[in-house]
Amino acid sequence: MKWDEFFVTGEPMIYAAMVSIVVVSLAILIGLTYFKKWGYLWREWLTTVDHKRIGVMYILAALIMLFRGGIDALLMRTQLAAPEMKFLDAQHYNEIFTTHGVIMILFMAMPFVIGLMNVVVPLQIGARDVAFPRLNAVSFWMFFFGAMLFNISFVIGGSPDAGWTAYFPLASLEFSPTVGNNFYSLALQISGIGTLMTGVNFIVTILKMRAPGMKLMRMPMFTWSVLITNVIILFAFPVLTVALALMMFDRIFGSQFFTMANGGMDMLWANLFWVWGHPEVYIVILPAFGIFSDIISTFSKKNLYGYKSMVASMVVISLLSFIVWAHHFYTMGAGVMVNGFFSITTMAIAVPTGVKIFNWLFTLQKGKISFTTPMLYAMAFIPIFTIGGVTGVMLAMASADYQYHNTMFLVAHFHYVLIPGTVFGVLAGMYFWFPKIFGFRLNEKLGKTAFWLIVVGFNTAFLPLFFLGLSGMTRRMYTYSADTGFGPLNMVATIGAFILAIGFVVLCYNFYWSFRYSPRDENGDPWDARTLEWSTPSPVPVYNFAKVPNVKSMDALWEAKVNGVPLYEEGPYEPIHMPNNSGQPFILGVIMFFLGFFLVFSWFIPAIIAGIGVVVMLALRSFERDHGYHISPEEIAATEQKLRGDSV
Amino acid sequence: MKKKRWLFLGLFVSIMLLLSGCDSSSLIVLDPKGPQAKTQSSTIIFSILMMAFVLIVVYILYIIMLTKYRASKTSDDYIPPHIEGNKWLEFTWIAIPVIIVAILSVVTVKTTSAVESVPAGYEDQKPLVIYAASSNWKWHFSYPEEGVETVNYVNIPTNRPIEFRLYSYGPITSFWVPQLGGQKYAMSDMVNTLHLLADTPGSFMGRNSNFSGKGYAQMEFEVQSMSAGDFSKWVDDVKKTAPQLTEDKFNALLKTSYVGRESFSSTHLGFNPPPEMDMSEGHHGSGSSDKDSGSETMDHSDMSNMEDMGSMEHGN
Amino acid sequence: MKINDSLPLEYRTEENSNKIFGFWLFLGAEIALFSTLFAVYLTLWNRTGSGPTGKELFELNGVIWETFLLLTSSFTCGLGIHAMRLNLKKPMIVFFVITLLMGLGFLGIEITEFVNYVHEGATLQTSAFLSSLFVLLGTHGLHVTMGILWGAGILIQVGRQGFTDETANKSFIFSLYWHFLDVVWIFIFSFVYMKGLM
Question: Which fold has domain B128-277?
């Protein structure tokens, strides 16, 4: 390979991106050196095994990826704003919608959700950390370096260009000869393994590490949603692992799984992809359901309506999510029987989802609703998501889907599900739990301004797409002619996209403003909330709970506040056992990054060396004898005194 | 706060007005020109009405809850009651959606089987078979009986069922003529059948709707439906005036990325046959799922395979 | 740290019992992984293109030996854990060494087979059937390789430290993994070799 093929050349926008990447990296390096923060970064963050810090890093990475994916979206919308725009060429446009999809689903929605899980779940169940803190760090660094590997494809080697679904034979070496799809298979593989480990970790955490008295049916709804989500992860992600491995073999080692000759089968990829891909949708949406449940209950000052049916409906959704995948390709020609079956299973999902919508509405009934920023997102979620839901039922009808498939109608539908569902969900969760981690709330006024911009921008951007779809505009077209009549509605959509973008800028400004000026939180419970995480001081000390709480009912903190049921037993503190920090997960991530990178370019000898590096790291871990450390009762008392001030 | 809500509502309404202001005939999916598309557009409208009912119920409840139970409307010392749920209410919102889904399921299966077969009322007519193959980035249409072939346009007689047989010389594409009916994939290792029919003469937009690379946006073709007389006149014209399609010419065509319209007085089906199995067990196209097509979709020119397969089937 | 003396050594601390539970979950994911690989294989097994079929390729002799070695190693691995429960360090080590040696033997035969296939012109690139065969067998073989390395590491630790709750826990988890590989092999034996040879 020549050097001019190695770096992506010939695109002014990419040169600008390269320059900005170099400048930003230099600025970070110089800044860290100047302020002498290298040690701090290493000790407190890169080597941490604390679930709260790992969660924060997940969310930070997700926000950065949100901006990368968002800029992709703006570029696309600019190109589509008017007929025959010359802003992007076809190849560039194809790369951009591919990276937009991959990044938003796998490197934005997933880590944001997992980040919130990390921050919140141990606190909600009264645990000191997740079951395997070290593994948790490995998960994070695998995700992080997978995401980095995917992102450097932008400047080195070229981005994938076959859509986030990477259908074969389009994604094969024959039709996509750049290394772009090698990046796709390896970057997703590395971060996917991290996600799988998260799945194992959180199932054990939730099933085995709950505080005494917290029966399964007393768990907060977010914890329930996370448990179910991780069960889906456990069974769905191995399918992705296999699919990506086969893709890698086809592209790098010349195997014949999805090729056009020698018996290869292109639709096998589509089947494998969606057997993972559809459950994946529920992996990012169910935790959002959990977040909304907790928020709606908190801000109507009422317990959640129909708790049992909420749990049951999530279980049903998770089961159905594995038997609907073929609705992504009714048009493959599988016949009436197959399409009929998948139509019915898909529509059946509407029933448990409807149960949840009505339960949320009836939680509001007779409540005392206060419209804080998190609650606003929850309240915007219900009506907008319902539009996404009912259009989903329409798409589920095979005969009608023959007309919606691959059109802007479909694009509108899944954005109407994923943005009000997942994005509003994680944003609501971020506003809600932010004070728990940082000890101050984000500014409400700025939060609400951003909220309205986002909601108005979102609807303006995506509502027109339903109509464009019915007018015959397909997705992934980089341009269209004026006589199609698609122009005006596309212009409206583009304006909406920019309003949405301004909303996200305001959201970011809020971090800065609140960090400088927001009043610090005093008692650890700024929202007058209901569940255990709010019984700790904010910011939460490293050990979470000085004493393990005793749970006697659902909404344990609320019971403690209203009925005076004590959460903690009297008596002296006991020493707390904590795991040590470790640099190994970070180093393993770096090695995995290089392993992936070398494989992308088929540099096998360096790849083998990196592979040996991975085995060495595993061996080091096996032979390590690290039993952690203990925090003494005196130290706990001092910390609690300092954090709780006079309020205890 | 309140002001913003009205602002939001106003914006929403103005968008709706803008949308309804658009010429409704531009929604071509809802402007069918044949029985299949008609079935689909009435299915779509039926489902929109059903779903509008659901939306209205949710929105009414939502507005009631949000206006009646806001904190600003209650006294400071009001403590919301603890409500676990209500069996009957919960039963209602399980039962009604189940009924709705059941109705939609019946409609789906009926209409799907309708659009997957020859249009009702036309079964006794012999369908016109047209092979439609995609290659990067164009469409080839071969009329085996008429012995003509076209590129990027297809002429059909009105009121006669057309049996499109779809396959691809490259990435998966999707053959879609919205005003005549829904789409179906064209793939390299099998042939799919799509039944369409135009009941009015006219020109309709057709395109590949499944992303297939750089030239995807340009992968459009025109469908012209014309009277049976005009159609046979056109066929005769092509046979007389258009050049023969030789193997070399066809291979050159496959390699050319963008071409305009072309017509030929012979087809490629002889020297470059579609990936159909001659020894098929009677399920060409629409009935054949990819799952059970392991034996069906092999390269049928490879005789040694077929022997192996035969012996394997004995083994089973 | 909570310690429950009524349980076997490997389960005694809460952390260790969590590890065993977590490993069961991991095996659940492994089942999903191998199920997918089997589904791929069964979809592609008669799409042989211009390459050989399974019937032409497979030789029962080597497969029988592989099966014998792996099944027996699973048994000796179980004996090793039994010895551990009885606190017999030396027998445990001996049984584990036998287990790993048999694993090595299995790998040796498998690699020889792969080399033979390639010499007969049946490579990863030949046909969809062969791609899926090599990837399915290769994934299992890679698991066995990792298992041998892992098992050897644990043996060294048991040798040095004796039975502690940690080494006992590791040995027990390793045994779960080894039995699992055995089960996967039984499926490979039935759905790949028996089906192919019939």
Answer: Immunoglobulin-like (2.60.40)
B295 and C CB contact within 8 Å:
yes
The torsion angles phi and psi of A467, rounded to 5 degrees, stand at -75, -35
CA distance A360 to A349: 17
Residue spans per domain, chain A: 1-36, 37-526+534-582+626-647
- Domain positions in chain C: 11-16+52-197
State which residue of chain B sits closest to A331, comparing Cα positions.
Answer: B184
Other Cβ atoms within 10 Å of B73 Cβ, number: 11
Q: Is the pLDDT of residue A37 over 50?
A: yes
Residues B117-160 pLDDT 10s: 999 999 999 999 999 999 999 999 999 999 999 999 999 999 99
Complex ipTM value: 0.95
Q: From the centroid of its chain, how far is CA A577?
A: 31
Per mean pLDDT, which of B264-278, C6-20, C76-90 is the most reliable? C76-90
Asked if the Cβ–Cβ distance from A403 to B210 is below 8 Å, we say: no
Cα separation, A262 vs B275, whole angstroms = 13
Note the pTM of the prediction, 2 decimals.
0.93
How is chain B classified by DSSP, letter by letter? Answer: -HHHHHHHHHHHHHHHHHHHHS-GGG-GGGS-SSHHHHHHHHHHHHHHHHHHHHHHHHHHHHHHHHHHSBGGGS-TT---------HHHHHHHHHHHHHHHHHHHHHHHHHHHHHTSSPTT-TTSPPEEEEEEEETTEEEEEETTTTEEEESEEEEETTS-EEEEEEESSS-EEEEETTTEEEEEEBTTB-EEEEE--SS-EEEEEEE-S--STTGGG-EEEEEEE-HHHHHHHHHHHHHHSPP--HHHHHHHHH-S----EEESS-STTTS--S--TT--S--GGG--SGGGTTTTS-TT-HHHHHHHHHHHHH-
| Contacts B221 to A, Cβ<8 Å | none
Q: CB of C179 within 8 A of CB of C70? A: no
Average pLDDT over residues A112-139: 96
Task: Give CA–CA dist A380/B167, Å, rounded.
Answer: 45
| B285 close contact with A: CB closer than 8 A | yes
Confidence (pLDDT) at C161: 93
| Domain edges within chain B | 29-70+85-116, 128-277
* A344-349: long-range contacts, CB 8 A cutoff, minimum separation 24: A344/B101, A344/B105, A344/B108, A345/A320, A346/A392, A346/A396, A347/A393, A347/A396, A347/A397, A347/B101, A347/B104, A347/B105, A347/B108, A348/A320, A348/B101, A349/A317, A349/A320, A349/A321, A349/A324, A349/A392
On the question of pLDDT at B311 being above 70, the answer is no
Q: Which of B291, B308, B315 sits opposite C48 (nearest CB)?
A: B308
DSSP structure string for A99-124: HHHHIIIIIIIHHHHHHHHHHHHHHH
| Structure-block tokens of residue C20 | 């065993």
**Cβ contact, residue pair A402, B115, below 8 Å:** yes
**Beta pairing partners, B264:** B149
How close C92 gets to chain A, by Cα (Å)? 19
Pick the CATH number of C11-16+52-197 from 3.90.1010.10, 1.10.3470.10, 1.20.120.80, 1.20.1250.20: 1.20.120.80
- CA dist., res. A274 & res. A270, Å (int): 6
Architecture of domain A37-526+534-582+626-647: Up-down Bundle (1.20)
β-pairing, B138-143 vs B128-135, is antiparallel
List pLDDT tens digits, range B210-262.
999 999 999 999 999 999 999 999 999 999 999 999 999 999 999 999 999 99
User: pLDDT tens-digit profile of A192-246?
Assistant: 999 999 999 999 999 999 999 999 999 999 999 999 999 999 999 999 999 999 9
